[in-house]
Amino acid sequence: MSKIEEALTKAKLSKQGSGKDLKVFDQNRSSADTRDLVPVKSASGQIRHQSSAREISLMDNGSILDNNELSELRIIYSDMEDHKVANTYRDLRTKLIQKSQSKNFIAMITSCVEGKDSAMTSLNISTAFSFDESKTSLLIDCNLNNPKLDTLLNMETDKGLTDYMENEDIEVDSIMHKTGIKRLKMIPAGMNRETAAEYFTSLRMRQLMSDLLSRYSDRYIFLDTAPITESADTRILVELCDFVVLAVPYASSTKGKIKEAVEAIGEDKLLGVVFTDIPNVPKFSLANLFKF
After folding, report:
1. Which residues 6+ apart lie within 8 Å of 105 measured at CB?
2. What is the C-alpha to C-alpha distance for residues 49 and 153, in angstroms, rounded to an integer?
3. Given the DSSP bridges, would you call strands 106-111 and 177-178 parallel, antiparallel or unpaired?
4. Which of 1, 50, 165, 213 is the most exposed place for a label (fewest CB within 10 A)?
5. What is the pLDDT of residues 77-87, one digit of tens each?
6. Distances (CA, A) of 159 to 136, 162, 175, 207, 285
7. Of the options 3.40.50.300, 3.30.360.10, 3.40.47.10, 3.40.1400.10, the CATH number for the domain spanning 22-280
8. Domain ranges (residues) in the chain
9. Do the Cβ atoms of 259 and 2 come closer than 8 Å?
10. pLDDT (tens digit per residue) in 85-113
């Protein structure tokens, strides 16, 4: 049995999905070079790796989406009626924390099929981490040619990732936007999206990732990217991550595409495969089947 067939065998389909994600299988994890590249230091010269408790309290200020609004946006919430969906994401969160040995991390979420983005998956994974009142999530839209996160969240943003990359006068805090979800912030793609490869290979990008990771010990960073089988930019971003979650759209993926994606990610970074876009199976009674 090939590695990809083994992976697909281990991934168990959920009986109820509404297009949501499934369970993840484990792979060995290696530390990202970014973690040690440019440590953030205080004025005393000591590396700053503090708790974000104060930031967490500040993040809860402002307008917060209620459960009805979250449901309309297809975003999970802790006490949603379809608890199996929320618990699936909780289970994925637990696996991620276990693999990171309870340290914060940078995780990339990408698809293996052209035209099938991973934005909804990325949004709900990062939201699951924000369920925990002691943690914060930061979601970054790195799909520069086809950004979706601000649309999914009904947000209007001005500055984003590419603006920060092009202008050294722009501070990180000015590109981090509240999402309406407690303890979750988002960095949108930005305005200029023509030179993504140059952005992602730059020292400024590596410094940004190191700063975001090192500043708070309980901040978890998620990068939403273009499908890895179609994007050189996404393959570059693999090097900045601790691990990668591969979204596999149900009934749209071939074994060849999945294998190509797995090879592009590499076994040392691939944490697991998640099936998405699973249709609901209609329920029929015998009376309905034999109605005349």
Report:
1. 32, 96, 213, 220, 221, 242, 243
2. 30
3. unpaired
4. 1
5. 988 888 888 88
6. 21, 8, 5, 18, 53
7. 3.40.50.300
8. 22-280
9. yes
10. 888 888 889 989 999 998 999 999 999 99
